[in-house]
Amino acid sequence: MVSERCSTKCVCVIGAGPAGLVAARELIKEGHNVVVLEQNHDVGGQWLYDPNVEREDPLGREASLEVHSSVYASLRLVSPRETMGFTDFPFWVKKGRDSRRFPGHKEILLYLKDFCDWFGLNGLIRFNTKVEYVGMVDFGVVGKDLKWVVKSRNKKGDEIVVVEEFFDAVVVATGHYSQPKLPNIKGMGSWKRKQMHSHIYRVPEPFRDEVVVIVGSSLSGQDLSMELVEVAKEVYLCSRSMNITEGLSKVISKHDNLHLRPQIDCLQEDGKVLFVDGSWVIADTIIYCTGYSYTFPFLDTKGIVVIDDDRVGPLYEHTFPPSLAPSLSFIGIPRKIIGFPFFESQAIWIAQVLSGKRTLPSWDDMMQSIKEFYHSRDLAGIPKKNTHDIADFEYCDKYGDRVGFPHLEEWRKQLCMSAIVNANSNLETYRDSWDHDHQLLQEALQSPHFTQPSGAHTIASL
Questions:
Q1: Separation CA 357–CA 367 (nearest Å)
Q2: Residue 428 and residue 251: Cα distance in Å, rounded?
Q3: Nearest-CA neighbor of 116 among 52, 32, 47, 174?
Q4: I need a surface site. Which of 71, 90, 161, 275 has the fewest CB within 10 A?
Q5: How does pLDDT run across 378-391, given as a tens digit for each residue?
Q6: pLDDT by residue (tens digit) across 393-420?
Q7: CA separation for the pair 289, 156 (Å, rounded)
């Protein structure tokens, strides 16, 4: 619903990754006063590579992590760059930089820094500032608008400055690829050799001549297997299902020292890893590529927003908790989406709701919508832990309709799907061999998205 009434709010955005940056941009456009708090020394969030992982618990079991980024040195995009950019800031190839269609992580960071510079966002960001507490002020007092207290710790050289501030609204944009999710395997606690989560994996060299067991065969498990097989003595890749893709099968058949195994039954103190099919191996290292959990250790909502088996809720459209809306919102909760455009549509909605340009449904209607959504997932047999896995272009389009956000272009959808299909067939080569994409690529480069005027970018031939 659109309203003529507009107001200016003082808004705290937590996190200066892709979601936080586009949130700041849209909030400023809508006339709000914005402060972005970022715990690292630069923008980028996950895309700010951090090689210094020695200070982190190898399994990430601490409540507060020292290392935010889970990016490893060789990581490249799994989706082509044409699909990635914000609607008014295409992810062009720039002279002297990584020109590959599936570039390395540094290129994403540079894109985000360009975005920040182009829209003048740097002055809004306080770097090296860790948010320690976010809570409600006068919650439950009738007739008072909800406000938020934010306590943060800022590092200035050797000095630590603790700051307490008050805001009309808080936007949480802290990502969900930092807090390791671990399996529950018998003997994990007593296994004497090295165990680590892929969160702190960076380079293959420390595993030279080792026997490595990798738990989990999704994206990171596949990447690490292909990298480690070149230096390790043996690599055992554990998969929940032995029905693997053609692409992974091709990789395994090429390497005598890469072996597919089922899940682990138990770990024994002498270094033995016993698999559920009865086979076993003596391993030097186990790397858990088992995903990540949502976590907001700083957020105190008096139990209104909870995380239950990776379901953050209740959230209306994965964004607003009805009882605290619109003063508290989340950007970037959904997974299995084309991230940057979706974050942008979320940011526009939040900014316009806060200004009063748009209004939310009633509390009853939002809660009913959430209830119906949960019920539909249950009927579809989707586990609670996959509540925020969208994998639906139509949902993204309908989400954006609230603010007149453009639907995803057909070429963007098709290029995204083409990469998935190609990876399933040609896991080792899909990032560099994509002849079947040429027609779609030309359509993309000739579309309004890429032909819009922008002095920030330089066109290069792909």
A1: 22
A2: 7
A3: 47
A4: 161
A5: 999 999 999 999 99
A6: 999 999 999 999 999 999 999 999 999 9
A7: 35
